[in-house]
Amino acid sequence: EEALQPFHDQIDQLSHFIKEAKTECYYPSEHNLTRDESAAIYIYTMKWANNCLYDHLQEAWKTEDRATMKRWFKYLRLFKSALDKLPHSKRKIWQGVPFDETFIEKLNSKSSSTLYTSMGSCLPSSNEIKDYLQNNFSNKIILIGYESVNGKSIADYTANSRHEYVISPSTKIAKADCNVIDATDSVIYHLKGQN
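^ that's the sequence the OP posted. Answer follows.
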């Protein structure tokens, strides 16, 4: 509750959903997450109305502005503390976004330097993401496959039934490959973790 205090005026029904997250989250757990840590993951995966917590966090994250993100620091510390207690996964995981020329330019302009992950959930199947995005947004999408990033499975802690993974926001990654797929001109990026 304290970690999300700055957002009560911004996010509709936040108090209600914080209570729901604290009641419904997976606690106690075999990974020794506190109730607040488990609830931090749970509320991150909850969807409500047009602007849930995830949407607001994504908006702030995309600004790449430290001052904008500062209000999120308490919540992100709690979220990262929860992720740190979960086991690493070595499997390739996927993230997808509707096609965005600016995002493509950003990935391409940093091709020789280290990139940092976008804040978002990933799934083990690229087809599941592709189907969802093409059915709900447009046929033209960007798929991102992550290898060697030590993603954390949050499946037991989510508000839905998907087997989601999260990559720690501090993970360093670099572009390994890029290709355009099928008639929709969708783009697939393959990114790899760096030590």
